[in-house]
Design a protein that fits this description.
The complex is a heterodimer of chains A (264) and B (270). Chain A is mainly α and 264 residues long. Helix content of chain A is 76%, strand content 0%. Chain B has a two-stranded antiparallel sheet. The longest helix of chain B has 32 residues, at 233-264. Classes of the chains: A mainly alpha (264), B mainly alpha (270). Chain A binds chain B through residues 27, 30-31, 33-34, 37-38, 40-41, 44-45, 48-49, 51-53, 56-57, 176, 178-182, 184-185, 188-189, 191-192, 194-196, 198-201, 204, and chain B through 22, 24-26, 28-29, 31-33, 35-36, 38-39, 41-43, 45-47, 49-51, 54-55, 177, 180-181, 183-184, 187-188, 190-191, 196-197, 201-203.
């Protein structure tokens, strides 16, 4: 299948998701409120911390808001586009309904990843972007189009890392029969993306920068506004995103070999 | 009375068995909790970098608070009871309880206690393994009266946690999908039960306000007792009175929702 064909399939999924959301409007509004509540919890944490301090690991309040905002932005994009789809892999494998994706004429990972789009997540991506813009203004910056484009590129690299991490997590479903509570794992890992890298200390820095790239996912894009363009960080993040995605796809396809259909 | 005890003793044994089925899931959750603890350590150590105390508490005391909170969560938190109750209503398996001499609230509460006993034991293993890492954050020099009031307080917290989850689960009588309500309430509970930051770091009037809400008594209160954030026995006694009041109110609300919900419920099938 060509790239254009894949794009057409994804667009069809989005169309289907829009129609579905129109049918369950109450659900849409409820989930928007849910997400606003969770974003508020994060911002309140900042508010409380900065009632007692002026900076955290050298980051001021607007800079921390930029970091939190960037972390939320990537997370909301991921939740809107892939979260529900990927976390349905466990059930699909256990109950044998994964056959449905194998029977389709496309890459099974792509097929299950793009099954539907959660429009509330997409909507909340806009809210998270609003927090980033507010933080940048509070920092007194007027970034150029080039800086904004680089920030957007690095955010997309972050999205790829989120996606790849969850693909690796859910690929364990091929080996372990029942994987409950994995969603919590996703949030626990990327909890660390809200922290300035300097706050980590030596051991955590090794784990959450070099082994699991959870911290650089939002630190590097935020640094674009905070300290200016850094080519090393840009290339580093892009390479990690590529390598992480390749590793995730490999693990998923290794797992797929173990899948035995549940149909008779 | 003996027959009643006998009936729920069997339910308790059943709850132990079902809890053991998910022991690996809980071990995985504990692993994720340790990640969460690591994130908290990094954030708060950076916040404490240029000062010795925040809100009158040292870094050791703040980390002790979060460590106790993580342990308490495994002993008293309602993880997915709301979802399970909602599923039983939606799937119709609740019908079996309507024809049996069994009280649904007591039945679910008994299973909840049995499950928490299992998760409490399961969580003890990794905590013991990590003792060299987290040992310095265990509460120090705890006065004896704190241990005495901790037990009833933590029991009441567990009942509040369960009763809140029970009420949300019963919403399935009215709504097809309750997950949104559950996650929304989780956000409020997470904030106001002190999971994000110790509540006494909030501005004074907000802290005072939070003390009248049930969420304060879900986890913050018992942890505050053992970590010294509740100043004296009189304050603990006052808190426990409000906690008991919330237990009664929530149990009453659960009963009202159950009876109203049943009026809407339609049992289908043989």
């Amino acid at each position: 299948m060509t790239l254009a064909a894949y794009l057409r399939i994804w667009l069809a999924s989005i169309r289907y998701s829009v129609v579905r959301t129109m049918m369950f409007r109450f659900d849409f509004f409820l989930w928007v409120i849910v997400d606003v509540a969770w974003m508020s919890v994060n911002l309140l944490l900042l508010e409380v911390l900065f009632n007692h301090t002026d900076s955290i690991a050298g980051w001021t309040k607007p800079e921390m808001m930029l970091l939190f905002g960037t972390s939320m932005l990537i997370m909301r994009m991921f939740i809107g586009l892939f979260f529900t789809n990927l976390f349905s892999v466990d059930r699909a494998v256990r109950e044998g309904t994964f056959d449905f994706y194998l029977a389709q004429p496309g890459n099974p990972l792509f097929m299950i990843s793009t099954r539907k789009v959660d429009l509330d997540g997409v909507f909340n991506t806009g809210l998270a972007a609003g927090i980033v813009i507010y933080a940048v203004r509070q920092m007194g910056l007027a970034p150029s189009a080039g800086t904004i484009a680089l920030y957007a590129f690095m955010v997309l690299c972050g999205l790829v890392i989120h996606y790849a991490t969850v693909v690796m997590l859910v690929s364990l479903s091929f080996w372990i029969v029942r994987m409950q509570g994995l969603e919590g794992g996703y949030f626990s890992i990327f909890d660390l993306s809200r922290l300035p890298r300097r706050a980590l200390g030596r051991v955590l820095d090794v784990v959450f920068v070099y082994i699991i790239p959870a911290t650089i996912v939002s630190n590097f894009p935020a640094e674009v506004f905070r300290s200016g363009i850094n080519p090393t960080q840009t290339v580093w993040l892009a390479l990690v995103a590529g390598a992480w995605l390749a590793a995730a796809a490999t693990l998923f396809h290794l797992g797929l070999r173990r899948y035995s259909s549940a149909s008779s | 009375m003996t027959a009643l005890f006998d009936k729920y003793r069997h339910v308790f044994a059943m709850g132990l068995q079902s809890g053991l089925v998910y022991r690996w899931n809980f071990l995985l959750r504990v692993l994720f909790s340790l990640l969460h603890l690591a994130a908290l350590y990094a954030l708060w150590s950076a916040t404490y970098a240029e000062r010795d105390t925040i809100g009158g508490y040292s870094f050791q005391q703040t980390m002790s608070y979060f460590l106790c909170l993580v342990i308490a969560n495994y002993l008293i938190s309602a993880f997915n009871e709301d979802y399970q109750i909602g599923e039983e209503i939606r799937g119709g398996t609740i019908n079996q309880f309507l024809t049996k001499p069994i009280d649904y609230y007591t039945y679910r509460l008994t299973i909840f206690f049995a499950n928490r006993l299992v998760t409490g034991v399961v969580v003890a293993i990794p905590i013991l393994v990590c003792l060299p890492l987290v040992g310095e954050f265990l509460p120090r020099d705890v006065e004896p009266w704190r241990w005495v009031v901790l037990l009833p307080s933590i029991l009441l917290s567990a009942i509040i946690q369960f009763s809140v989850a029970y009420c949300f689960g019963l919403l399935a009588f009215w709504f097809l999908e309750i997950q949104g309500f559950v996650i929304l309430s989780l956000a409020v509970e997470t904030l106001l039960s002190g999971q994000v930051f110790p509540l006494d770091l909030m501005p004074e009037f907000l802290f005072r306000l939070s003390q009248w809400l049930p969420f304060y008594y879900q986890a913050y209160f018992p942890v505050a007792i053992v970590t010294g954030r509740v100043p004296d026995p009189a304050a603990a006694q006052h808190g426990m009175m409000i906690q008991l009041l919330w237990v009664l109110l929530l149990m009453g609300l659960g009963r009202v929702l159950w009876h109203r919900g049943l009026r809407r419920h339609t049992a289908v099938g043989g």
